[in-house]
Design goal:
Oligomer: heterodimer
Helix content of chain B: 40-55%
Number of helices of chain A: 6
Shape of chain B: elongated
Strand order of the largest sheet of chain B: 3-4-5
Largest sheet of chain A: 4 strands, mixed
CATH architecture of the largest domain in chain A: 2-Layer Sandwich
Strand content of chain A: 15-25%
Radius of gyration of chain B: 28 Å
CATH topology of the largest domain in chain A: Alpha-Beta Plaits
Distance between the termini of chain B: 58 Å
Number of strands of chain B: 5
Number of helices of chain B: 7
Largest sheet of chain B: 3 strands, mixed
Order of helices and strands of chain B: HHHHHEEHEEHE
Radius of gyration of chain A: 29 Å
Number of domains of chain A: 2
Strand content of chain B: 5-15%
Largest interface: A-B, 77 and 84 residues
Order of helices and strands of chain A: HHHEEEHEEHEH
């Protein structure tokens, strides 16, 4: 769980896909039809002529030739920067602070996720149906408010353990976390299987 | 955002792919392209030699592309690009469901891996039929859990009873959308143990 903007990811992929499909169809059509080939050369040729005419509207000293020549690398630089920003926006939101409370008299109190994770680990010790756990926290984008922190608890079920049993364990754990933090936190619980599950012995019949 | 909506959002995000991998890969390729074209432009402005081809040479090459390349080559390249684009489009539009599903819970946003359900169903069927672990395997599909059982030679199994055991385990999970369970008993038995 993180702050990736999924709708934007999909829009971006759709746009890239559409452009590729369009270009592909155009090139394939040029391969199939002589009309498209001559049309291609004519359109590209007139576009180049138009570009030359545009260059002449804003002459500049050599070696630049025209101010318009500067526009192309500028646009490319802008596009590259946008892409870098895009890449930087992926993910994010993870935090080490599970909860924070500011009291004007007592000062600020912060609870680290690692503390809660250790408590969960200790509570699960000796549990028959859970072999491992992990706890992470993330903060929603743009909110400094600690109450907006959500938790994600992953429990690795022992092979063959009933998911409902594990879910009951999780609800019990989250009740304890609520009691520890003193407020209601949004919690996502995932009951999974992983390497620990594979390595641990399966749940045997009684 | 109220609590119910937050929970729904968390569940949706946990059970569906974010498309981050594909979108990052596309963005990195795009970035490489922008940087290269930008470098060529700057080199040309400075009057230095090009890395691969200068902007003017590139523009001319694009104009003369239909004459320079065999039509069959154009068709093949165009089709390949179109197929790649279609893959991106499909990835953008399709749901991207992961092998997980939502379980009912009052307090939590609760998600369970299909694999965990399959293991639990296998175990219940195995207990009901008194079989060894390797005689039962379960796959969980979108709408049904399919259990295949290899009986011990000479010991017939009651398919009804096993189906009921599987269905009971699935029902006990209280999934947001229930799974149907079906049991297939292999004609060939395993050597008894």
């Amino acid at each position: 769980m993180n702050n990736t903007n999924r709708a934007m990811n999909r829009t971006f992929l759709a746009l890239a896909g559409l452009i590729l499909v369009g270009a592909g169809i155009l090139v394939a059509a040029a391969g199939l039809s002589a009309d498209v080939r001559t049309g291609w050369t004519a359109v590209a040729g007139s576009a180049l002529t138009a570009w030359q005419a545009l260059r002449n509207t804003a002459p500049s000293p050599e070696p630049l030739g025209s101010w318009w020549s500067l526009a192309v690398p500028a646009v490319l630089l802008l596009a590259a920067l946008t892409t870098i920003l895009w890449l930087a926006r992926q993910g994010g939101g993870r935090t080490r602070t599970a909860a924070r409370e500011d009291d004007p008299e007592l000062g600020a109190t912060a609870v680290e996720v690692s503390y809660l994770a250790a408590a969960v680990e200790a509570a699960l010790e000796g549990n028959r149906s859970v072999v491992g756990s992990s706890l992470t926290a993330w903060r929603r984008r743009g909110s400094k408010n600690a109450a907006r922190t959500s938790l994600r608890l992953t429990l690795q079920a022992r092979r063959g353990a009933s998911p409902r049993e594990v879910a009951d364990v999780a609800e019990e754990l989250v009740r304890s976390i609520d009691a520890l933090l003193g407020h209601h936190t949004d919690v996502l619980v995932r009951i999974g299987t992983g390497t620990r599950t594979t390595l641990a012995r399966a749940l045997r019949a009684g | 955002m109220n609590q119910g909506r937050m929970q729904k959002r968390m569940l949706r995000r946990e059970t569906h792919s974010s498309r981050t991998g594909l979108s990052v890969a596309t963005a990195v390729l795009l970035l490489a392209g922008f940087v290269w074209l930008g470098a060529e432009c700057v080199l040309a402005l400075l009057g230095r030699g090009p890395l691969v081809a200068g902007p003017d040479a590139m523009a001319n090459a694009i104009r003369d592309l239909p004459q320079a390349v065999q039509p069959a080559g154009l068709t093949a390249a165009g089709t390949a690009a179109a197929v790649l684009g279609a893959v991106l489009l499909v990835a953008a539009v399709k749901g991207g469901r992961r092998g997980r599903r939502t379980m009912h819970s009052e307090r939590l946003a609760l998600v369970v891996d299909d694999e965990a359900i399959a293991a639990a169903v296998s175990r219940q069927v195995r207990l009901a039929a008194n079989l060894a672990p390797e005689q039962v395997s379960t796959t969980v599909g979108r709408r049904r859990a399919h259990v295949s059982v290899r009986p011990t030679s000479g010991q017939p199994l009651d398919r009804e009873a096993l189906t009921e055991a599987a269905a009971r385990e699935v029902a006990s999970c209280r999934l947001a959308r229930n799974l149907a369970a079906d049991v297939a008993i292999a004609a060939e038995g395993a050597v008894g143990r």
